[in-house]
Amino acid sequence: MKEIKVGLLGFGTIGTGVVKLLQNNGELLAERLGCRLRLVRIADLDISSDRGVRVDAGILTSDAMSILDDPEIDVVIELIGGYEPARTFVLRAIENGKQVVTANKALLALHGREIFSAAAEKGVEVLFEAAVGGGIPIITSLKENLCGNRFRSVFGILNGTCNYILSRMTHEGEEFATVLAEAQQAGYAEADPTFDIEGVDTAHKLALLVGLCFGTNIDFAAIHSEGISSLTSQDIRFADQFGYRIKLLAIGKRHDDGTIEARVHPTMIPKHYPLADVDGAYNAVRVVGDFVGPVMQYGLGAGMDATASAVVGDLMALARNLVRGQGARTHGLGCHPGQLRELQVRPMADVVTQYYLRFTTVDRPGVLAAISGILGQHQISIASMVQPERHEAEAVPIVIMTHEARERDVQAALQQIDQLDIVREKSHLIRIENQL
Length: 436
What we know:
Elements: E1 3-9, H1 13-24, H2 26-33, E2 36-43, E3 60-61, H3 65-68, E4 75-78, H4 86-95, E5 99-102, H5 105-122, E6 126-127, H6 138-145, E7 151-157, H7 160-172, H8 176-186, H9 194-197, H10 200-214, E8 224-225, H11 233-242, E9 244-254, E10 260-270, E11 282-289, E12 293-300, H12 304-323, E13 352-361, H13 367-377, E14 382-386, E15 396-402, E16 405-406, H14 407-417, E17 428-432
Parallel strand pairs: 1-2, 1-4, 2-3, 4-5, 5-6, 8-10, 10-17
Antiparallel strand pairs: 7-9, 7-11, 9-10, 11-12, 13-15, 13-16, 13-17, 14-15
Helix pairs in contact: 1-12, 4-5, 5-10, 7-8, 13-14
């Protein structure tokens, strides 16, 4: 039986999962492929720690180049993460004519144009199913099963840490800082969770989804990104009162004028929408195509086993091609390289949506009139409002839900309102999506 020889860069959590899967299901994979996947070398800076899986010490090395430059190795799996040396290693593998599998969303979000172009020129593929949504097969779906559609939008809950925190805040009424600390202790959040809670990780993944859905190389710097650290249990309660849940949502939209939206921020979505029920560490992606309509995929967005499943799925796809002597079938972003378009990302200031606005003010007559007057001056109309009963000499919240308004108008209004002597805290906004 033919063998496909594989080299693995990175023997951390996901790398360990890949080794475990190849060992446990090796015979099953061979039956399905008609060839064997043989892991011939593993490179990592630490080759002495016990990972809980048994491997021949002879295949372990701290020299990545011994994999990248070995003419016998057919496929390189990159699981070291980060920008460098991952970029250098992936480009070296491509230069040497090797197929590549990676889970590195940060690398592809910033350097995807260079990497995919190099792969196309060399006639090899770079597959990255594990980079978005863990075990959810959204990348393959967009490149293969749904590729006959023009996509109107893509929405995603793409970070398990944030979704876990927001789920706890929603169902238990805890504050953000408390839940984050508990999540770190339980291993659901990193010691330094900045990339997760500030939306950077989600933005990396959105860059890839937008590229696949709309056939474009997106400039990562053009993606507007906000995190969840400013959310309070008070916001969660008010959202529930209005019939919404708050999720850290990745949003991609294409407009008739050819511009696209690409933004990540806390978002209110109606409680009856399926995305609102995605709880805990689970992820979900919802796309809308012109023929297929809405399609939603749901599953574990991270973790050793789910991510290893996606990595090995890519490995098997490449093995099928190699067994038949075929080269690259699809470009990294699912579109012929010569047909990728440079689509303009709408500045956040030009985005039009609905808003939840929370003001903390003194409790006296005329406050609401002053706030609504400024909103009106900026063409922002009020859809509904909650103002608690008056309490003498206490600061109270006023919550307003708007009709559709332009971001720059809302920001200008809030800046003006925050200068009023009746306002006790910086005003707070959350964007609303009612039409997913």
